[in-house]
Amino acid sequence: MTFYELVQNSLRDSLGTSIPAFAPELLLCATIVMLLLGRMFSGGRSNLAYVIMMVGCLAAFVVAWRTDAPEKPVEIFTGMLVHDSFALFMRRLLLLFVILFTSFTRLSGTPDRQTATEFYTLILGATLGMCLMVSANHMLIVFLGIEMASVPSYALVGVIKERRVSAEAALKFAVFGGGAAGVMLYGISLLVGTLGTAHLPTMSVRLAELLGSSAGSEYHPILVLAGLMIMVGFAFKLSAVPFHFWTPDVFEGATAEVAAFLSIASKAAALALLLRVTLGLGHVPSTLDTPTTVPVRYAVSEDAGTATAESASVSGLVTDSNAALLPARQYSAWLIALFAAVTCTFGNLAAYGQDNMKRLLAYSTIAHAGYMLMPVAAAILLAGTDPEASRFTVAAIGFYIAVYLFMNLGAFALVAFLRNELGSEQLPDYAGLARRSPGFVICAAVVMFSLVGLPPLAGFAAKFAIFAQTYEAGLLSLVVIGVLNTLFSLFYYLRVVKTMVLDPEPEGRPAPTIRIWSNAGFYCALIAVLLVALGVFWNPLFAEAQFAASMLLP
Amino acid sequence: MNNELALLNNYLVVGAVLFGIGAIGFLSRRNMIVMFLAAEMMLQGISVSLVAWSRYHNDFGGQMFVVFIITVAACEAAIALALILMLFRASGSLDIAVWHHLREANQPAYVDEEIPEPPPGDTAAWPRLVPAGIEPEIDREDTDHRPHV
C-alpha cells in the first residue's frame, strides 16, 4: 500500500463513517471550546456559560437522537470504537442526563457565575470520557475513557475551593482513583500482552484459542490475575465493596450537584463498559468483517524482525470458540456475582444509621450498584447458552439504568433544594416539612418509594426486570439476596419520608416552604410524574432498551 | 525464540518490580507528593512491561499504549499537584493524615501517631491567581515600593 492509498483510506474511513457517528462527541468538544472563549469575553459576569452549555448539550442530544443506528455494529476509527444501537442508547441517555443536570444546577444555583465555566467544562470533559466508555472496542479506549471520566471528576469534587471538606473529598477521590487506575492498567497490560492484541473482538478469538489449546493451562494464573486486577478498576468506578470507601466521603464533601453527577453518569457509563468488556471477551463474534479483525498470529522467529503470520479462518471455529470460552465466562460471572451480593448487602446495612442525607444516598448508590451488577453476571452466563436471553438481560439493565437516572437525579435535587432553603443536609432538620410544603414532600415520597422499588413506580418495573432475568440465568441465591435487601432498604428510605411527614416541626425554626409551582418544586414534580409514568407505561422505554441490546453478541 | 522469551521475562520482572515498589510506596507513605510519585512509578512499571510485550509480539500496539499512558499520567500529575497545592494552603502540611474530617458520624478519627500542629503565626500571604477575564486589582503600595531591578 502506498502512502497515497493509506491517506485516502484513512480519509474515507474518517469522513465517511467515523465522523458522522462521532458527531455528538465532537459537538461536546466544540462546546468546551466555546465555554472557554465565552469566559474570556464575558468575564464571568453573565449567564453566558449556562446558555452555551445548554445550547451545546441540546445540539449534541438532537444530533445523537437523529443519528440512525446502523444495520449491524460498525467499527469506527480503525476499530477503536464501535457504533451500534447499544452505544447510541447509552450516549442518548448520558446526553439527556447532562441536559437535565444542567437545568438542575441552574435551579439550585450551585456553580455561581464565577465558577460556572470551570464547572461546566469539567462536566463536559467527563461526559466525553463516558461517551467513549460506552462505545469502547479497544482496551486503549477502555483505559482512556475511564481516565477521561475520572480526572475531571477529581477536580469537580473540589470545585468549591473554600470548603475544607471539599478539598478533603477531592484528595480521597484522587488517591483512590489513581491507585485503582494503576492496578487496572496493570491487569490490562497482562491480558493484552498475553493475548497479543488490544482489540476486543480479536482478543476474544485469541482467548478462545488459548483456553482451547492444551498448552494454554500455564497461562491460567496470569489470566485470573489480570481479570481480578481489571475488576478492581471497574469496582472502583461502580463503587462496589470493597472498593467503595471513597463514595460516602466524596459525596458528603462534594456539593449535592456533583454527587448526583458521580452517582448517575459515572455509574451508568461504568456499567455499560463492564458489559462491553465482559460480553466482548466472553463471546466470539461470528461476523468479523473488517480487515483489522482477521486474527493474525505473529510468532517471533529466530531472527527477530521477520514475522511469520498464520491466519485462521474464523467463521467455522465460532461454535468451538464459544464453548472454549466457558471458563472465562464462568470466572467473570462468579466474580461479578460475588461483588454484587456483598455490595448490595453492605450498602443497605450501612445506609441504615446515616443522618447525613448525602451519606445516606451514597450508601443507597452503593446498594444500587449491587443490584445492577446482578443481571450483569446473569447476562454473561446466558451469553454462552442462550444469546437471545442474554440480550434481553442487557435490555433489562439498560432499562434499569434509565430509571435509576431519574430516581437518583430526583433524590439529589431534593437534597440540593432543601440545602438552599435550610442550609443543612442533615435528615433530622427535614422534620415537619409536610405541613409547609406538602407538594414537595409528595414528590420526595415518590422518589424514595421508587428507589425502594414499590409498585406502581418505575423503580418496581426496573427491579422486577433485572431480578427476573437473574433468576432466568439460574442465580437463585442472588435473587434471594436482592429481594431481602430490597425489604431491608425499605426501612431507611421510609425513615426519610417519616421524618418529613410525622416528626413535629423543630422549635424556633419553621420548616421551609417550597411551593410546587416554584421552579424547584416544578422540577421535582416533573421527575416524580416521570417516575409514575414510567412505572405504568414502561413499554416504550423497554422496547428502546431491547433494540439497544439487539446488536450485542453478534 | 528462547532469547526472545528470556528478554521478555527479564523486562516483565523489571516492570513488575517497579509496579510493586510503586504500590508499596503508595500504600505506606503519608507525604502527598511522595504518594503521587509512587503512583507514577506504578504507571512506569506498566509502561516497561507493555513495551516488552510489544517487542515480543513484534507489533507497535504496546508502544502506542505507552504514549497514551504517559499523556494520561501527565494529566493526573497536573490535577494531583494542583490539589496538593490547594490542600497545603489550607493546612500548611503535606501529611495526608491531617485530612480525616470526613468519616462515619460515630467513629473516632484514626491517628496512628500524633500529628504536630502547624507552627503558629504562619500567616504568609500566598500568591493567588486572579479569576480569568477579570481585571486584577493592583496593590498600589506594593508597586510603589518595589525596588526596580
Euclidean distance between termini CA atoms of chain B: 67 Å
Overall pLDDT of chain A = 89
Shape descriptor of chain A reads globular
Query: What is the distance, rounded to the nearest whole angstrom, between the alpha carbons of the first and last residues of chain A?
Result: 31 Å
Write the CATH fold name of the domain at 2-99 in chain B.
Helix Hairpins
| Beta-strand proportion of chain A | under 5%
CATH class of the domain at 2-99 in chain B: Mainly Alpha
The helix content of chain A, as a percent range, equals over 70%
Query: How many beta-strand runs of chain A?
Result: 4
Radius of gyration of chain A: 24 Å
What's the total helix number of chain A?
A: 21
Stretches of chain B where pLDDT is under 50 for at least 5 consecutive residues are none
User: How much of the sequence of chain B is in beta strands?
Assistant: under 5%
Question: What is the domain total for the residues of chain A?
Answer: 1
Task: Describe the protein's topology.
The complex is a heterodimer of chains A (554) and B (149).
Chain A: H1 3-21, H2 23-42, H3 48-66, E1 74-76, E2 81-83, H4 85-108, H5 116-134, H6 139-157, H7 164-195, H8 200-212, H9 220-238, H10 246-253, H11 256-281, E3 296-300, E4 307-311, H12 318-324, H13 326-351, H14 357-385, H15 387-422, H16 433-436, H17 438-452, H18 458-472, H19 476-501, H20 519-536, H21 539-549
Antiparallel strand pairs in A: 1-2, 3-4
Helix pairs in contact in A: 2-3, 2-5, 3-4, 4-5, 4-11, 4-15, 4-21, 5-6, 5-11, 6-7, 6-11, 7-9, 7-10, 8-12, 9-13, 10-14, 11-14, 11-15, 13-14, 13-19, 14-15, 14-18, 14-19, 15-17, 15-18, 15-20, 15-21, 17-19, 17-20, 18-19, 18-20
Chain B: H1 2-28, H2 32-57, H3 61-91, H4 140-145
Helix pairs in contact in B: 1-2, 2-3
